[in-house]
Amino acid sequence: MKKNQYPYMADAEPTRSPLTAPTGAPPETRLQTAGAASTPSVSDRELPNYRFRFILLILAAVSCIIGSFAVGRFSLAVADAVLILLSPAFYFAVSLDVPVLNDIMHILLSPLISVAETWDDAMYSVVFNIRLPRILAALLVGAALSTAGAAYQGMFQNPLVSPDILGASAGAGFGAALAINCYLGTGAITIFAFAGGLVAVGTAYAVSRLTRGNPTLGMVLAGILVASLFSASTSYIKLVADTNDQLPAITYWLMGSLAGATMKDVYFAGVVIVIGLIPLYLLRWRMNVLTLGEDEAKSMGINTHLLRLIVILCATLVTAVAVSISGIIGWVGLVIPHFCRMIFGYDYRRIIPAAIVMGGGFLLLVDNFARTIATTEVPLGILTAFVGAPIFAYLLMMGGKRS
What we know:
By secondary structure, the protein is mostly helical. Helix 5 (121-156) runs antiparallel to helix 13. The chain has helices at 27-38, 50-68, 78-95, 99-109, 121-156, 168-181, 186-209, 215-240, 246-255, 263-282, 284-290, 294-299, 304-326, 332-344, 348-370, 380-402.
């Protein structure tokens, strides 16, 4: 045995523990004492209560959702917002004209809502047409970006990887800029941005397959290359765009915002994001195996190439659709996975669900500040950078102190 092959083994003779039996003791005694020495105490095996932490995280997200309905330039109380949201269910139950069901609904909802409307049409329109689509869009985009970031960091085994590592954001920005330059509508801008993100990642994957050497490193370098090309193409479109109309619209879209989110955007993004998140949630335990290394994962029967392909495809899908309705929003997919690891450990069985809840709540909270912090709405990309960069610097410094 080489001397430094196992660095955790001391060079000197080990000292005898008080629980270590003498060399000449019977085998039964040595086994009993060895078992007593190796068995940790209850306090040593005590783990954090992750279920309680997850419950607190869900409660915080729900509180943020309820409070978001009252945040804005149009004054609206939280109680009124809750009553307005519950009114369709109440009136639907009443419209069924079932006496027993009507009585039950009146009794159950009587503490929350009265039969007579206590709000006007303006309040109803603000809740359902403006704030509800924006809140749902923020939850979907935040959950998509944070989960994709956690998945990418696990697949590439690099904590500095973000959802735009393969060029999805750059491709979506080029598609949106092209649509705006062609005077297309809002729906076309979303479709072009979504298609641009998929084309960019597909190109990066195709280039990486032609490279030699480490396939993971080749994919990352191909993503940087493709992102640079699409960013240059976007800059050219901004150069030739109309400075009075098109250029401001392109610039504002690239900074990220949910001001124009509609229920059509929510339906489109919600279906695609759910389709992409379900495989990531089901494969979260296999991500733990892949973090052990390529050889170890293959020895346990994991098809690492297929697993990486599925995870990257799903993460790319949710990233592209999230960017297509919100614009380019940075730092969410980079910082939130680190917070999830700090609170819930390094087990992807907990990281993926925590990233879904925490990412949605974080972006919703940032969006609330974006529409109230100034007289004009601040783009989300600016606020997430102001918030994410100091937090990430703090995480780096704390990590250096722990090491």
